[in-house]
Amino acid sequence: MFQYTVWNFVPKNLFEQFRRVANFYFLIIFLVQLMIDTPTSPVTSGLPLFFVITVTAIKQGYEDWLRHISDNEVNGAPVYVVRSGGLVTTRSKNIRVGDIVRVAKNEIFPADLVLLSSDRLDGSCHVTTASLDGETNLKTHVAVPETAVLQTVANLDTLIAVVECQQPEADLYRFMGRMTITQQMEEIVRPLGPESLLLRGARLKNTKEIFGVAVYTGMETKMALNYKSKSQKRSAVEKSMNTFLIIYLIILISEAIISTILKYTWQAEEKWDEPWYNQKTEHQRNSSKILKFISDFLAFLVLYNFIIPISLYVTVELQKFLGSFFIGWDLDLYHEESDEKAQVNTSDLNEELGQVEYVFTDKTGTLTENEMQFRECSINGTKYQEINGRLVSEGPTPDSSEGNLSYLTSLSHVNNLSHLAAGSSFRTSPENGTELIKEHDLFFKAVSLCHTVQISSVQTDSIGDGPWQSSFAPAQLEYYASSPDEKALVEAAARFGIVFVGNSGEIMEVKTLGKLERYKLLHILEFDPDRRRMSVIVQAPSGEKLLFVKGAESSILPECIGGEIEKTKIHVDEFALKGLRTLCMAYRQFTSKEYEEINRRLFEARTALQQREEKLAGVFQFIEKDLILLGATAVEDKLQDKVRETIEALRMAGIKVWVLTGDKHETAVSVSLSCGHFHRTMNILELLNQKSDSECAEKLGQLARRIREDHVIQHGLVVDGTSLSLALREHEKLFMDVCRHCSAVMCCRMAPLQKAKVIRLIKISPEKPITLAIGDGANDVSMIQEAHVGIGIMGKEGRQAARNSDYAIARFKFLSKLLFVHGHFYYIRIATLVQYFFYKNVCFITPQFLYQFYCLFSQQTLYDSVYLTLYNICFTSLPILIYSLLEQHIDPHVLQNKPTLYRDISKNRQLSMKTFLYWTTLGFSHAFIFFFGSYFLIGKDTSLLGNGQMFGNWTFGTLVFTVMVITVTAKMALETHFWTWINHLVTWGSILFYFVFSLFYGGILWPFLSSQNMYFVFIQLLSSGSAWFAIILMVFTCLFLDIVKKVFDRQFHPTNIEKAQLTETNSSIKCLDSMCCFSEGETACASVGRMLERVIGRCSPSHVSRSWSASDPFYTNDRSILTLSTMDSSTC
């Protein structure tokens, strides 16, 4: 979602920019310079400010323009609307409530529609809501009977109906309304529920076309209501910058006040107040002293204003904008199968990738591939697994004493289900092969009938000749399932010889060895999260009424009165330990009298207008009892590549991982176990199905006590959406206390806005941790926008998450490199950039302040105005910019293979107050050396020229400035670990440019300059040997103390990163850097060189010997664009 429009861009962008302390401050300084007489021109403040504002506005406008383009693709999509008896093409944004819209197969619904009709006679259609709730299953929606027959545009144009519905709400699973249809002067009222509503963002599947009437459009659709409004995200580094700016603002004001007070103290003596060479005018003598004091204070404020580095912001903006391209260029983040590379939608948060403490991830499509595969099953107490398309027993059978026997007995004599239903063999062990086949036949027929699977095409001529032979090709049938498990199970049954062919109306067709059997579908008892099971009632070819039930073992086993219950329960636990998704199968046979009673109760409950859900739940419970257990199935939800390794790496980096999913409890826990989010040894705590605040509080108290009593075992927490709502409403503190003591948290059955609320809760907790949310569907957009950093997966669920995220990647495994390498580098670079900018500006302005003590606080500037303007723009800007783009203080491969190094930069450690004070103190100490070193050299009436001529104030200021430019540039060189030819060019080129520029600027009389104070000054300064010696001495003195500190810290108090640099140096770096290289043979300075390498931890890309093997985890090939220089395996 975009942030700006054409009309609000200028005011809104200016407001956002002037929220920054430095921008607002320079605006005030610029206005002051316009209003009063100041030592410097208004251009010195106005021009940099205009440049910064303009560059930032262009960058942010460009990024928002890209989001506009993406949104227009959706809002401008063509749709067909029924008007005046025909179909009219319009854009999706033009749909109005009451429009009848036609949607074709595989198209996305452009608004929330009430289904009127489809190409099927019963008015049903199938949709997938993967982009809304993360579920890739197919959901069946039905139209009311009166409109289902209106399958043409002409018929729909004659429809007279009124739809009444509730006010728009965000809940995806709730909808209440009614349709009043007028037919032949008679009004027919039909209730409308969620089964009639087609949600915007969902996709039509397995249906040629549908017609629906728009009830919610635009921002009133459920998808839009689940979006959070996009807010401007600000990184922790930017907040630290504002804090530092305020501190420097206090220093600035203090210096201005001190200078003003000392000026008036000094001028208390008459000889200094009005010396003979500077007589006051009458107006000056009679002017108000208070106004004069304020004017002088403002003048000093302007004189010292360069201590606030406005160029810091433009450098940071450039660094973020240009640095973001490295993510897109990184070939390790490129997914070849989908041809997707990483995308950066918001470059303002690059450094935030290095500060993440919590990762909130979606499950479906983010951790998994949305591909279910049948693995094992338990049939009447015997466990089987599929191997190469065959069902293989894991234990001895009646036919063979050997295990792992493939059963190939023919099923040709088994054609009728009715005589199997009452067989005693379903409750006892089989006594012969025929009974064994009967059990398997009934089990797989239950699998083939108890579902809501649909088929788009049927080609079943090549069914195998045995029940366990895999000669059936699943690709021949295109199944669309109501859950991913159902599709995998029906396909498995087809491989084993019992093929679901499809349904026509109420008839379900199953082929067994080529013989077609037809079952009449009487009722479907839909799945719901309370029952955690679904059932079908069918009429067998022989006329018997049978109930087939499928669901979680916790909901099926308690209702069973027969079958191998204990053995099956053991098998289910074994399946779960393998991380497989389990379902139990059971059946029940009804007498004619029982079925009549059931049919009557179902009709009454389904037509009730009041308390329909409660009545249906009661009838379902009455039906699904006294079951005979058939067995259990186990399917595997295929994880994405390297998910387990990535989650483990995140843990090692000190990052807590939460899984937030709309999926069922059992499914989510199973995937959490298989992906390593939950460990087998972890004590899983559950906060599920809480009905009231008091019940929720009591349960939370119990969980808190369990955690306190056991300090050894790791705990994992599972909480569902309903319980979470209660916990967040009244018991936030207690809930957060439980969560903080859990190693992993998994939230299931979560609505999109609930995901955002959870992240919000963590964000505002006392620790104020940095959060990251990652997901792939529209249901994840809210949490992506709520988190400090939002990452979209470019998966199978559309591009809503990727469009609304800050970053987009193709696979979850790429998250490790994005955080551990890019995040680490970006944070170190920008942290050094910020500290260095304050340091060099303290070096710049402090001599100006000290100079006032020697010029009677007359507001005389120490530097020429050109030097004032170009210091931050030209002379010292490029080395730090290139450093902030290319620096690699440690090898990327080391960072990725040692996730614990991520801990060293967490909690904004590099921008702590201690580090800030060190850089500030260093700046002041260097400034004192610049000023007093130059003062002692030429301040005592000493001639340093051969002709006896004295140096003046401009020469003094130029000497200070020259030492300063060389020192701050050399300081940047000391901080650089990764040297490329670009670093060499800008570092030494900046110093060379300063000398060349000064020679030209001071060596020529420029006609367009009104005054040229610097004429011949620089040339005269450089003609003195003493000046050259002083420059070298002062630069060495400044940097020597810094080098000593670095050596001491690295030798006696090394950080983990410095230890890793040392390890890397000892193993692969053969030279100090590209400026100091030693040959392979021993030389006189070889031992010194090795010591310096070990202490400084310096590396040069041209001298690195990489020894990475294919067995290295994550990425075996470093093709990152971050490495700009070629890697040479040879030593120096």
Quick rundown:
With 1132 residues, the chain is an alpha+beta fold. Helix content is 44%, strand content 17%.
Oligomer: single chain
Give start-end ranges of low-pLDDT stretches: 397-433, 457-475, 1068-1132
What is the count of DSSP helices, taking H or I runs of 4+ residues? 38
Instruction: Sketch the major β-sheet.
Output: 11 strands, mixed
Q: Mean pLDDT, as a whole number?
A: 78
Strand content: 15-25%
Evaluate the radius of gyration.
38 Å
Number of strands: 34
Shape: elongated
Q: Which structural category fits the helices and strands?
A: alpha+beta
How helical, in percent, are the residues?
Answer: 40-55%
Distance between the termini: 52 Å
Pfam families: Cation_ATPase, E1-E2_ATPase, PhoLip_ATPase_C, PhoLip_ATPase_N
GO molecular function: ATP binding; ATP hydrolysis activity; magnesium ion binding; phosphatidylserine floppase activity
Domain P-type ATPase N-terminal: 3-45
Domain P-type ATPase A: 78-141
Can you lay out the helices and strands and say which pair or pack?
Elements: H1 9-18, H2 21-35, H3 43-75, E1 78-83, E2 86-91, E3 100-104, E4 112-118, E5 124-128, H4 130-133, E6 138-142, H5 145-148, H6 153-157, E7 161-165, E8 177-183, E9 186-192, E10 197-198, E11 203-205, E12 209-216, H7 222-225, H8 236-266, H9 270-273, H10 282-286, H11 289-303, H12 310-329, E13 343-344, E14 358-361, E15 368-379, E16 382-387, E17 390-393, H13 418-421, H14 433-449, E18 454-455, E19 479-480, H15 484-495, E20 498-504, E21 507-512, E22 515-525, E23 533-539, E24 545-551, H16 553-556, E25 560-562, H17 565-577, E26 581-590, H18 592-606, H19 612-623, E27 627-639, H20 643-652, E28 656-660, H21 665-674, E29 683-687, H22 693-709, E30 715-720, H23 721-730, H24 732-740, E31 744-748, H25 752-763, E32 771-775, H26 781-786, E33 789-793, H27 800-804, E34 807-809, H28 814-851, H29 865-875, H30 877-886, H31 892-897, H32 913-938, H33 953-975, H34 981-1003, H35 1017-1022, H36 1025-1052, H37 1056-1068, H38 1086-1096
Parallel strand pairs: 14-28, 14-32, 25-27, 28-31, 29-30, 30-31, 32-33, 33-34
Antiparallel strand pairs: 1-2, 1-3, 3-12, 4-10, 4-12, 5-6, 5-11, 7-8, 8-9, 13-34, 15-16, 15-27, 16-17, 18-19, 20-21, 21-22, 22-23, 23-24, 24-26, 26-27
Domain P-type ATPase A: 78-141
Membrane topology: Multi-pass membrane protein
Subcellular location: Early endosome; Endoplasmic reticulum; Golgi apparatus, trans-Golgi network; Membrane
